């Protein structure tokens, strides 16, 4: 299968070779095409064509390197739940643009349930988080309240999607 076909608007149809390629690339994005081909039992040319098709279909995004947060002074993960004052499209857009502008906000999820957003914020320490919370996040005009939790230990962390 050299071309990716779509099962639905979002899900691509992947065969066994595509899945093997994705598993290897998620583990080692810097692997050479020759090494990848050997590991997935395919030719380098076939692997290259499939990677290009997976990129074109949006299955594969840009290649990145993962950074150890402790080594760069961002060793504390704060999980912050946020409740909005109102829920208009304009207010949500404003808040979502705000979180995009703040690099310490690593993840932002619009949530169902009692809280409107869930943020994962990478900071140096509790004092650093307190500054961000009190002087930045809670100063956003749309934020009504928040609740914070601190990760004691990262038990599991992965960026690899099960395929």
UniProtKB/TrEMBL annotation:
A Pfam family it matches: HTH_24
Cellular component terms per the entry's GO annotation: cytosol
PROSITE patterns according to UniProt: HTH_ASNC_2
Annotated GO biological process: response to amino acid
Domain HTH asnC-type: 14-75
GO MF terms held by the record: sequence-specific DNA binding
Full protein name: AsnC family transcriptional regulator
Coiled coil: none
Keyword Transcription in record: yes
InterPro entries in the cross-refs: AsnC-type_HTH_dom (IPR000485), Dimeric_a/b-barrel (IPR011008), Tscrpt_reg_AsnC-like (IPR019888), Tscrpt_reg_AsnC/Lrp_C (IPR019887), WH-like_DNA-bd_sf (IPR036388), WH_DNA-bd_sf (IPR036390)
Keywords linked to the UniProt accession: DNA-binding, Transcription, Transcription regulation
């Amino acid at each position: 299968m050299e071309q990716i076909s779509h099962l639905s608007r979002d899900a691509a149809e992947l065969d066994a070779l595509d899945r093997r390629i994705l598993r290897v690339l998620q583990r080692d994005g810097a692997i050479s095409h020759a090494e990848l081909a050997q590991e997935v039992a395919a030719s380098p040319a076939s692997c290259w064509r499939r990677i290009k098709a997976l990129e074109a279909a949006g299955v594969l995004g840009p290649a990145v390197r993962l950074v150890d947060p402790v080594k760069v002074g961002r060793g504390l993960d704060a999980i912050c739940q946020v409740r909005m004052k109102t829920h208009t499209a304009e207010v949500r857009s404003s808040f979502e643009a705000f979180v995009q502008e703040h690099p310490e906000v690593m993840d932002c999820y619009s949530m169902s349930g009692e809280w409107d957003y869930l943020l994962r914020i990478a900071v140096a320490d509790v004092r650093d988080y307190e500054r961000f919370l009190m002087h930045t996040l809670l100063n956003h005009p749309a934020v009504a309240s928040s609740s914070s939790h601190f990760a004691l230990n990262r038990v599991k962390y992965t960026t690899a999607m099960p395929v």
